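Help wanted!
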Amino acid sequence: MNNKVLNNRAWLLVLPMLVLVAFSAIIPLMTVVNYSVQDVLGPNARFFTGTEWFHSILNDSALRDAFVRQILFSLTILAIQVPLGIGIALIMPKRGWQASAVLILITLPLLIPWNVVGSIWQIFTRGDIGLMGWGLRELGINYNITRNAGDAWATIILMDVWHWTPLVAMLCYSGLRSIPEAYYQAARIDRASKWAIFRYIQLPKLTNVLVIAVLLRFMHSFMIYAEPFVLTGGGPGSSTTFLSQSLATMAIGQQDLGPSAAFSIIYFLVILLVSWVFYTTIMHMQKDKNPHGGA
Amino acid sequence: MAEITLKGLAHSYSKSPSSHSDYAIRQMDHVWHQGGAYALLGPSGCGKSTLLNIISGLLEPSEGDVLFDGHRVNELPPEERNIAQVFQFPVIYDTMTVYDNLAFPLRNMNTPEYKVDPKVREIADILDLTPLLSRKAKNLTADEKQKVSMGRGLVRDDVSAILFDEPLTVIDPQLKWKLRRKLKEIHERFNITMIYVTHDQLEASTFADKIAVMYDGQVVQFGTPRELFEKPAHTFVGYFIGSPGMNFMSVTHQADKVMFGELPLPVNEAVSRSVAAAGSSNIKLVIRPEFITVSNSPEPNSVPVEVVNLQDLGTYSLLSFTLNGQLFKARLPEGHAPVGDAAHAVFSDQHIALYVDEYLVEIGHE
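Answered by r_m:
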């Protein structure tokens, strides 16, 4: 790796990219790694702690609860948003001005900043002036997101579904639009039912966009912060405190840099691991199981 | 089993067609007999795919009727017409195995598995797909995929016609003839009406017993490949069929002579009489490149021409020359080409054909 590199000037062309990646990913990550294995008390007072912070994080029961809540939240919104997104994409108009109009309407929630989404729903769900909160109360339902954990959960999920299902729907819509008309014609001639058309033509052709949709939605929801923070502040109690909020409290509120750094690394590795496992599983499923076999 | 009749059929994609040009298919009557192997030949945009989709039921014609065995089926969707269609790009169900692909139409009709299995294996055997039955259809080559999509049409007992929409477009050239032979074989074996859309005259003539040549939304001629070649009923057929196509001369009849522009053509009495009797301003004399002889010395009834170039194509040579400023092609046997730029051409009287308003008019050759 000496002569070759020295003689090969093309490596210089990689340099800008390397610098970019270093500043965008490697150096910040290394900073975190640096903090995670030391106890930094001041500019000149630091002690090497090894894996101590990691142990304490993994044994922290509050964090473990937040982790379970986080998993539960991500799975719930995926289970709702993916089928719902596919369903919306299927019934969206295919052409004409209606198609454009529906597309714009559907995309609107995606354009609203996270904090604003939280504020909108915070007001929306208030019992005194919020349409939904007031409406439910008038109907005789005891709905209060600051008091009932169940209400808080349901509202956060509803909010996320409202905010992000359009993304899934749009990805699916683009996937559906790319299926050639001949497939539908052939299916009609083969007397395929609506369900069979969905199962054997549309769904397989959607696999790739769905992989992207699930990955994006998983990563996104696993890092959710601003919306629940504004809406419930993590409460009631800690019933809607997710990982990001726990981390922020620890790092900014308590200035526990060492444990927060260790926490960040574990957090990052979990997202990486889940995404990787999911992606490889799907790609593996698509492979021909018996490429050379006979009948 | 079906005889497919098109009665007064016309189709326009616009809602209120006013002129000829609004029609993708102009009014036509046509019968496809049970068990025939037909080709629908024409250039891109002539309406052949539209016609095919009308027959299969993917499109409803705006005028006229489609009859299957005398029953009007205009409004029947494709699934109720007992036809199969093979598309330009192979349509297969990616996630299924080849076996499941072939079984799919049967299972959609709730056929019991004990009947599905032998049928699928029989068709797979005919199409040489047996070794591939357990493979995922997604990973097949284009020609295998096309065979699978054809097989889905064949497994159904009730299929009375298979429509092909340029099915060999994406197939490698060396596999095309193999697949075409397979089609022939299937046709002979199953007594199914087959209609094959293509823009390739070679494909059409090797596959079909009878070819319908389409041009500008109309079937301009319906005949055997031989008839199309020897007796094109329309100038377009003469131009489209054969390689190269026919030579056309727009002529007039003046002072008892057949004039090609300023040049009197040395044609015989019969031709001259027919031209005189044509009574139209659109008169064309037509001759195939095979029936022109060109030599260096003037001969009786020859006209002086200017040679443009000579292509040696192995068994014959193709000579391009100009006469009266128009380019002609002559197909000459090897060793019969003239030397130099100036030459004399003779048009064989027996093989000159007359077209009035683009359609063939019989000449009373003695």
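OP: Thanks! One thing I noticed: The domain at 247-361 of chain B is CATH 2.40.50.140 (OB fold (Dihydrolipoamide Acetyltransferase, E2P)).
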